[in-house]
Amino acid sequence: MKFKSIAAACVLGSAVVSLPAFADCTGPFTAPDLTFFLSGASGFDGYLKSVADTMFAGKTIYYFHDNADKSDKGYRAYKGTMAKAAGSVPAGTCVLLLKRSAGGSIHGVVDLARGLRSTVLDVSSGACSLISGTDYVCGTKGVDPNAANYDTAGAAGLIPDGGASDVGPAMFEGPDNAEYGLPTLSASEQAKLSTKAGFSSMMGYVTTLAVPASTTIVNAQYGAMLKGTYYDWSQVDPAINTGNTQVVVCRRFPGSGTQASYNWRFANFPCESASGGSVPLARMADSDGVTAYGGFGSGLIGSGTPADPYIVDPTFGYTVIENSGAGDVRSCLTAAQNHTDYTFTGEDGKTYKATFGQSSDPFRAIGVLSSDSAGKENGWGWRYMDGKGYYSIASQAADAALNGAVTPTGVAPSKANLISGAWSFAVEPTLQYRNAAAATNVFGDTAPALSGQKLDFFNAFTAAATDKANATANWIAALPPQNTPNAPLFDNNVARGTHYGNMCSPLQLLY
Length: 511
Description:
The chain is globular and about 70 Å long. A nine-stranded mixed β-sheet has the order 6-7-2-3-4-1-9-23-10. Strand 6 (128-132) and strand 7 (135-138) form a beta hairpin. Helix 2 packs across helix 11 (452-466). It is an alpha+beta fold. The protein folds into two domains: 34-199 and 428-509, no CATH class; 202-420, no CATH class. It has helices at residues 2-18, 45-55, 110-114, 187-190, 219-227, 257-267, 288-291, 326-338, 400-403, 415-420, 452-466; strands at residues 34-40, 56-65, 75-82, 94-100, 120-121, 128-132, 135-138, 140-141, 162-165, 193-197, 200-202, 206-208, 244-252, 310-312, 319-323, 342-345, 351-354, 363-367, 380-383, 390-392, 397-398, 426-427, 430-434, 476-477, 497-498, 508-509.
């Protein structure tokens, strides 16, 4: 018996030795077994974080960018141990998931298809510092395509392995949905992307709290303010006739998936871009405080540096502020409500300042935001569609504190209305990967098709993102026919209809 025990111990010992050796995933800066770079949409970063949490066992280490309040400012990362195997990726594998959101969805489409290196979070001991617990704040590395010094040796970041987009890659046509300096993908370039429909994501109508709950805002009026054809709040509600009555718009850059969603909703772009009947949404150059100084080409105050930013003066009238990420839009809305100056980086990489602080009154602003920003309200709130009043997406009820004696009307941005199709301003985000090698870039890199462990990780991540079990947030719903709704109650996070990933196709109710 003793001999058998010794023999058994030897067998067990040899089995332990043969197990794969994994990186120490508890060390914040130890090298991981697998690094995956996912680039694109900022509008559902909160959901992607929760998806990563479902895939990792135990505590996930979080990395943020330059903000001690743990907001990403366009870049974030997660490090954790795979809870279960995903194809060739064994359970226990230490994974570092890098997420770039700055600039929006186009960086998960164009950068991916063309194999372009771009800025990414620098997860290293020299670039990061501890916030608390296992949360770190880090700098970035690399330079974005078409930025100054992009092709300088050592200046570039990483090529994305996968992409995330609020709408499908085909929606990113110029000029309205293509970021500065990034031309539209050709048909052959689009063919290099394999796209998987994700889920239904609710977009929102938002205003600063200076807009009374009693003001009714219909869909066409919101669109008219985004376009600048309505430039004063008195055109929406004649009762708004004191203080700052000019319309302020806090929107995103072209190339943002969230902005593309609003371009689709309010200008039908690019679905009918050739019809001649579509009026594009206004840009920052259309602001009265810019045109008053001769526009960007002549006489704009400032030099565009952090020390001497270009000035966008909202006291002149209709004002549009273009922002890189969802967090920047929220900051823009908050600054407008609090009438404090707002400094931001433009699409061209220059520094701008909206001088809200010149006024002693709050500004009445609208915004371009996914409902992923629910719970982050600060001086602004969610409005009913084609009605009046404020709604709390977090509590799934009318916001009594903001509405006061006002009884809301219209369609609420509730999960029940998203599932039924009553909340019609919803898009279907996609996840995509490169199925063929990209063209050689300026560094001589030829990004290959995604394969091996990275492809298996992407497939597992996509499966988790599309699973109704994970679609628990109040602003998303899983899609049919990949998931089956719990008819007739429809209470299991699955939408009753789908665009089949094509936002130029009407919503089709399947249940």
